[in-house]
Amino acid sequence: MGIFAAYLIKTDRRSGLKYLWGGVIVAVVVSIVAGTALSLTATTLPSEVEEALAGSLSLVAVGLVTWMILWLARTARSMAGQLRGDVDRVYARGAGWGMFFLALFAVGREGLETALFIWAAAGSAGQGGLPLLGAILGIAISVTLGYLIFAGMSRLNIRAFFAWSGALLVVMVAGVFSYGIHEFQEVGWLPGAEDHAFDVSATIPPDSWYGTLLRGTVGFTPNMTWLQVIGWVLYVGVVMPLFLAVSLRRTQPPKDTADDITSTASLAVVGNS
């Protein structure tokens, strides 16, 4: 959204800003409502149904976020140019509400995906307010970074940013995948619920702050089953090399977009000047 807004100002299309932010607000509200409804619904279900739902939605979140990670790795070099092209196409068709729906679908798609991922990650980390606090802080950082890009006060190498964050996400998604396996084992859909690969509960208490941190970030629990460990290792072993191969692939950046890859702030600087 920071790139969108900066480009609107650069090309003297400020009238589109109100539609842009209107779409963002609606998308954020829809995402919050969806996440709240998911949380409230899950807590009212019988335990077996809740475990089955948690496992299923965790795998859905794994699929969505994995697709997003690989897509970002493939398109990061040309992302600024593609976003500007989206704005140009919308204005070629009349702008106004087109910008509203562009923002609505862009933020809404990622917002629903984020709500699902946060719900699954919070479930793997256990109950309590810390997962929600972490989600709020993460979103606040994202909003701040977007504003700094828009205001021309931040230089961001998009490709490097997504390379580092994507690699971290691969490890975190492996933890959600492991959590989904655990839930399916609890409900009896997968075997091996009692076949633990290790049990270090005495060293890393499950209810300790560092135990919760490990569980919520990398999916580590003090008594993981063999199937959980195998699932975690297989996911990282397959997705991480694929992500790195796509992310580090040397391709020529599209003409006239290289400067925006290294500094999207230039969009706002030119517009303001």
What can you tell me about this protein's structure?
75% of the residues lie in helices and 0% in strands. With 273 residues, the protein is mainly α. It is elongated, with a radius of gyration of 21 Å. The model is unreliable at 251-273 (pLDDT under 50).
> Quick one: overall form?
elongated
**Helix percentage range:** over 70%
Question: How many helical elements?
Answer: 11
- Give the C-alpha Rg: 21 Å
Largest sheet: none
pLDDT averaged over residues: 83
Secondary structure: number of strands: 0
Head-to-tail CA distance between termini: 20 Å
Uncertain spans: 251-273
Order of helices and strands: HHHHHHHHHHH
Strand content: under 5%
Protein structure class: mainly alpha
Q: Give the number of domains.
A: 1
Give a short summary of the structure.
The chain is mostly helical and 273 residues long.
Summarize the helices and strands and which ones pair or pack.
Blueprint: H1 2-10, H2 17-43, H3 47-75, H4 79-92, H5 97-125, H6 130-151, H7 158-187, H8 209-217, H9 226-247, H10 258-262, H11 265-272
Helix pairs in contact: 1-4, 1-6, 1-11, 2-5, 3-5, 3-7, 3-9, 5-7, 5-8, 6-11, 7-9
Keywords:
single chain, 273 residues, mainly alpha, 11 helices, 75% helix, elongated, disordered C terminus
